[in-house]
Amino acid sequence: MKTLIIGIGALGGLIAARLRAAGCPVWLATRAAEQAESLSASGLRVTGVGGAVTVQATAVAPLDAYGAHDNFDLVLLATKGHDAIEAAPKVSLLLGPNATLLPIQNGGVPQMLAERLGNRVLGGLSNLGATMETLGIYEQRNAGHLLVGELAGGESERTEQICRWLGRAVEVRATGNLRGAVWSKLLLNCSVTTIGAIAGGTMREYIASPEGRELFNRTYDEALSVALATGAQPETMLVEPIPPGWRAGSIATEARDAWIARILTAYGDVTSSMLQDIRRGRTTEIEFINGYVVNVARQFGLDAPMNAAIVETVHAITSGRLAPSPELLPQVLQAHLS
User: Fold this and answer.
1) Domain ranges, ordered by start, for the chain
2) Which residue of 77, 110, 184, 224 is 20 to 30 Å from 150, comparing CA positions?
3) pLDDT tens digits, one per residue of 87-120
4) Average pLDDT over residues 207-221
5) Position 250 pLDDT exceeds 70
């Protein structure tokens, strides 16, 4: 399966290196020529969970260097969400007959790409934990997996084929409910990831305050209400996606506290990727996470004021008008309640 990986950051680099180590032909696409030259000189090295591998980075070039004559069977899109949407017109030219585009971004990126490129898009999301020390040097942090499936639901031959192919590099699982799985991860991204970015700390730190816990509960419940309104059936992944005794605007209970404790076990001490983006001056994926919830809510005649307030606050932070701080949490709550 002639494969192009676009985006050689933590996740794309990890998959590329392990595919190469398994002897699979794979092409790499970077944003700029300087990155391609650097990778060509340094190669790819992965350490951590799954074992160490070092491979050469041949067949690497900036995305603009590829053309319709390349005709890839599989294009794995491992960029940030905004880069994925921006690259869509170019990517469509690289897909051969019966080819598949597999985006693995957070939030609503697969659905947004499918609206533009049709059923050539196969849905994907990642539970792999990886970090990039420098370009070409990566560490796998967990024994996670890729989850792939048809956006329309159900099983398919191409899903199984891609699972077998990418399974030579990392663990890949198929699901007949990719839409539900995407929402399950999105629910946690909307709350764990973005509130941590606003507070400037980990979930364990912000949820220790009454404002942090209330903000988490209100944001999660509001996003869950939108998910259910679409007809999606969120899948159990890390935790059951519907909290014990859930109803929109519910008051915390012991069962819910235990449910939150299970989330804390997995994510409580992790610095969110969005906070890392803010600290590095990078564009965040807020529009594809909480912003996506707000847009979908409008389509179904619903309001999502809590998620909207979070989007506005993150924009204020990235524009320099605010700085991440726990003191912002009461302000976000007040904006929602006013």
Assistant:
1) 3-176, 179-337
2) 224
3) 988 999 999 889 999 999 877 788 889 988 999 9
4) 94
5) no
Give the model's confidence band at 129: pLDDT under 50 very low, under 70 low, under 90 confident, else very high: confident
Per DSSP, the residues of 7-43 read --SHHHHHHHHHHHHTT--EEEEESSHHHHHHHHHH-
Q: In degrees rounded to 5, what are phi and psi of residue 48?
A: 95, -155
Structure tokens at 47: 């350490």
Q: Do the domains 179-337 and 3-176 match in fold?
A: no
Q: What Cα–Cα distance (Å) separates residue 142 from each residue in 51, 124, 127, 135, 182? A: 11, 18, 9, 20, 20
What are the φ and ψ backbone dihedral angles of 101, each rounded to 5 degrees? -105, 125
Is residue 335 exposed (0-12), middle (13-18) or buried (19+ Cβ within 10 Å)?
middle
Chain-centroid distance of CA 107 in Å reads: 6
Q: What is the CA radius of gyration of the chain?
A: 20
Report the predicted TM-score, pTM, of the whole model to 2 decimal places. 0.84
CATH assignment, 179-337: 1.10.1040.10
